[in-house]
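Dear Dr. K.,

Following up on our conversation at the group meeting, I've run the structure prediction for D-2-hydroxyacid dehydrogenase from Anaeroselena agilis. I'm pasting the input sequence below exactly as I used it, so you can double-check it against your construct before we proceed with anything downstream. Let me know if the numbering doesn't match what you have in your notebook.
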Amino acid sequence: MASALNILVLNNLADRHKNAITAVMPGITVSVSDPEHAREYIAATDILVAWGWTDIRPLYLAAPRLKWVHALSAGVENLTFPEIQDSDTILTNSKGIHGIPVSEHVFAMMLAFTRGLNLLIRQQQTANWNRVPTDEVHEKTIGIVGLGSIGREIAKKAKGMGMEVVATKQEMTTEIFVDKLYKPEQLHEMLAVSDFVVSAVPLTDKTAGMFTLEEFRAMKPTAYFFNIARGAVVREADLTLALQLGVIKGAGLDVFENEPLPADSPLWSMDNVIVTPHLAAISPYYLDRAVKLFVDNLDRFTQNREMFNIIDKVKGY
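The predicted structure tokens came back this morning:
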């Protein structure tokens, strides 16, 4: 490995973050920039750190020294363009750091529905003292579509709340917090037994548009759907129709096909929908966790050791 490395980060960093990066070995330089001014640094950049939704392709084409691109996010949807797929450039992501805030967000929405908070908060605005129907999550079944690090954290919390946990996964493995695993082609079978369905899959060519009216019709009419993955894994018009027709009982949505969610979307005004502005993973501890993961990988990179979270650039995950 070269004795000097230039790292360009397309996000603000605190001094403690920069110090942690430069402490990996002598000769590391960290530059921080927004995408608009990154061209000032890109020609000399060896490692680029950016968010997975950032369009880095123009920078990539102007970066002759670039060896590694790291995503501060789990998603890498804008980082798998043809030129990087055809190259030896390493691509990694920040998978593994999102489970705590995202799982807490899922359960915040889930409990809001079962305790009627989606209705009670609206009533509070008009000083309306009126009891609403309530329920429990205890002994209900949660179906997790995509059992990665976020899905596992959701499963762990669900078992702690006395729930039955089922999930879909590409490979059949032993999962200590999952009562039953289904293969992806058994999705409808899993949906049929779930009281709560959580979409936690990465966005790929295979998962884009995977939730259609057909999938919602496979669910119980008393079931709730939650999307904390990417908006494009759901056909939003089909979900809206399923909610309007009572095909499913409700939905908690943190991601959408178009963001911000357009003001004329009917999802805004539905009593059986909770809308949050793509913030499930946001936490005051996010960058601390992301930088720690990057630093661990940087140490491995400088020592030519096996790295964490290497992305298959063709598959997209």
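Two things stood out to me. The chain has a mean pLDDT of 97. The first strand starts at residue 5 and ends at 9.

Best regards,
J.T.
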